[in-house]
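Quick note —
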Amino acid sequence: MSQQKKVLPVAVTLAVLAGIALGALGFYFLMKSTSSSGTNSETYMAVTSTTASSTSTSPVTIAAGTTATQPIATSSWQTYTNYELGFSIQYPPDVTADDTSDPGTVNFTIPATYFSTVMKDSDSVSVAVSATCTPVTSFSDAPANSPDSASAYPQTVVLGGVSFTENIQSDIGAGNHGTRHIYETNQNNSCYSITSSERGPNDAGLFGISDPTQIAAVNAAHAADAAHVEAVMNAMIQSFAFVNTGAGENEAFYSPNMAGQAAGSGGSASGSSAGAAGNGSITIATVSPIPVSVGGNLTISGSGFSGHDTIVWISNGTVNGVLWGGMPQGDSLITATVPPQACTQYVGASGMACPSYLIINPGIYTLSVSNENGTTDPVYIKVQ
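Predicted structure written out below.
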């Protein structure tokens, strides 16, 4: 028995096609009107988000409902190296590195330009070196079966050839969310702590957007941006490496046009005879030779010199300058060169510009040594 085929009338077919076309055109103008309403408008993309970041990172292509990202290109990244703290880490050239707030910590801030919509997160990576590790407790609002649940931590990861303990701290507040991954290890008699921090809004509806389709588009674009930033920060953390600090390396010397190496000759200054016995934990015994010429070498002997941020200060009675800063050859010996100018603050291996200098002309100066053990009493020296 044959079956009769049912065919839609031509008029009905044309009407259906016209309705589809009008719907698509209306959605197009809805999205376009959002991006052209003013100079402060944002471009909303539902499927593809290209992050406005450095040339060293890749655009993010994201499929709806996923957080897949392309690999991060790091060939043009910069390398931050701190020989005193004993580590290096790579970062994109448009990321801000700051180690001026705390000599034991460097912070890397992700710029807001990594986010292409009104939803802009506050993200950063920090590396801190301290005497001991503080126990970290994981907590998270993520579901128990999620990779970001607290029950999945602590984990062990290898960074720079050394095992770190990773913990997570994640929470969702009123209109925002935040996640921190904290990596800690004891190495070189110190605690190394690396933290990646992400915090931002959790819904585009908080920015005066009311259309559900538009909210979904902005949320998808923000998810793409956030996934890209997370991949960048993970690449930074994976680049972490330990470096060896050379004994006696001077990290506070910023005089490229230093005079010749003609050392002074003569006697030495004695800490005990000058009344500079120190505080019991760190002392200067002798400084030689005295007098010393600009460009000449000083040998400072004493005790308690070993420790982070060991600094030799020189002062004319009004202005203090950093004559030397770094890792001493040992607990009782520092060899320093007298430069024609000494920075008035210790900037370590940061590479930051010195804000001002103490100009070292011939005359009488005082010398002292400070670190985590304390500060010695001053010893008088003569520069000729």
